[in-house]
Design goal:
Strand content: over 45%
Radius of gyration: 31 Å
Number of helices: 0
Strand order of the largest sheet: 3-4-6
Largest sheet: 3 strands, antiparallel
Number of domains: 2
Structural class: mainly beta
CATH architecture of the largest domain: Sandwich
Length: 191
């Protein structure tokens, strides 16, 4: 009797007392391991690479070894951490060297993309007539805005020549910054 066999195709050779030989084949279809992805936590923000995937095993013969297809760092526990958006495969092997694999897909929010357009340039040196229009896509709406000149609206007006930087925060608390330079014409000098 053979025990502890993994899923595979086996050939059995039987020799009796009269030296008669019989060969038979048997296919074991079940692996003995039952893998389940029990938890997947997405990235908190675009590019954060803080996702998590957890595999659980039932059946097979303990102890189990784990190998995720992650190399930096190598992940050899049921829980894979610091995952970026993508699909990851866990290979689980039991003490009889039976192995099976399962994949988990880590998702995450899209990148926040701010775009600033100067809608009204400053017309005179020293003026405060500049305006800038901010549009935001991606991330998880709604957005909040924190400009370097302490304004919290999406768009700016009454601008003098300067560099203005905005931090956009989405509904998940993810942030991105962008800047715009408002120029002014050269001062007119009388000759």
């Amino acid at each position: 009797m053979a025990v502890g066999l993994c899923a595979n195709f086996y050939t059995v050779t039987i020799t009796d007392a009269n030296n008669c030989i019989t060969v038979d084949t048997v296919t074991i279809n079940t692996n003995g391991l039952n893998l389940t992805i029990t938890n997947v936590i997405p990235e908190s923000c675009f590019g954060a690479c803080d996702g998590i995937a957890v595999v659980s095993v039932s059946a097979g013969t303990t102890p189990y070894t784990y190998q995720w297809n992650v190399t930096n760092p190598v992940q050899t526990t049921p829980t894979a951490t610091n995952l970026c958006v993508g699909t990851y495969t866990a290979v689980v092997t039991d003490s009889l060297n039976c192995a099976d694999s399962i994949s988990a897909t880590v998702t995450g929010p899209t990148q926040i993309v701010p775009s600033i357009t100067i809608t009204t340039p400053i017309s005179c040196n020293g003026g405060t007539t500049g305006t800038a229009n901010l549009t935001v896509s991606g991330g998880t709406p709604t957005y909040t805005y924190n400009w370097s000149n302490s304004v919290s609206t999406e768009d700016l007006s009454g601008l003098s020549a300067n560099t203005y930087t905005v931090t956009v925060t989405d509904n998940l608390g993810c942030t991105v910054t962008s800047s715009v330079v408002i120029n002014e014409p050269t001062a007119v000098t009388a000759t």
